[in-house]
Amino acid sequence: MGLHPAVAAVRQGVRRTLAGREPGATVVVACSGGADSLALLSAAVFEGRKAGHRVIGATVDHGLQDGSAEHAAHVVAQMAELGADETASARVQVDPAGLGLEAAARRARYAVLEQLREHFGAAVVLLGHTRDDQAETVLLGLSRGSGARSIAGMRRSFDHYARPLLDVARADTVAACLAEGIAFWDDPHNSDPGFARVRVRQRVLPVLEDELGPGIAATLARTADQVRADVEALDALAATAYSGLARPEGLALDGLDGLLPALATRVLRLAALDAGALDAELFHVHVTALHRLAQGAISGEVQLPGHVTAYRDRAHLRFRPTAVAG
Q1: 61 within domain boundaries
Q2: How far is 97 from 157, CA to CA, in rounded Å?
Q3: φ and ψ of 39, to 5 deg
Q4: Range of the domain at 303
Q5: Relative orientation angle of helices 5-18 and 170-180, to the nearest 10 degrees
Q6: Is residue 31's pLDDT more than 90?
Q7: pLDDT of 324 higher than 70
């Protein structure tokens, strides 16, 4: 029998991602024990060996469910069985205050993955998000009116991170695991309707498939790719404009006035991020408020996530740390 098509699809995604990496590079694979990440790890081990890469499986225990420590230990054993050159496990503290559980868990997870990447000197960290995850992200962005950046979905790669499976359906990662005899875990949170993403997965996408025909997830993911290209082009233009407007005394507002809104708002977003605003929590409403402040349409100050305050000072937009009571 030939290679199962689902296994081939997962391996192809990993092969494309690892292409061009230096032989012998260290690759970290984030693994939760679910079908997506286990299929990813198995493919990374297979493809990595051909290129002489060192593949490290890493699991993060968020401590949010009973028995999470035992589950993490089980995943570590699975990763070793699948052929990872080394394994790592870390437990994080998730504080949902002001963020919500999902966002807080994501922040804690990326923080520890970055620590592991630095510790191992890894060239890249592979994440197991699939085409279905991308479709859900696009729909959530549409429902929140979050603009093009949200509709563009998850990036295929950023910094030292990559998502090799954005062209692979979730059903294929399950099929790949079954074909390879890999037992996987179904996270109860993935079926909890208390999470908006789960409601999109269980209720919204099936209705769209029924009413509009099959292939909706692939269409939404393709839309994300198309919008992402436009977003990145505008971001590049905005980065050039920002470098010309940034001053020690603040962001020069006279040059901002001559920019189209699509560029001006991106320049303001860059300025806010440089001042310490939190990327994952800097939403359209914050950037819109910054734009109105810069235009003089509102007075006073704008509070940004990350304890950053923006204010006008004559011909410049400036930022300072927000005073925290107590």
Answers
A1: yes
A2: 29
A3: -60, -40
A4: 248-321
A5: 110
A6: yes
A7: no
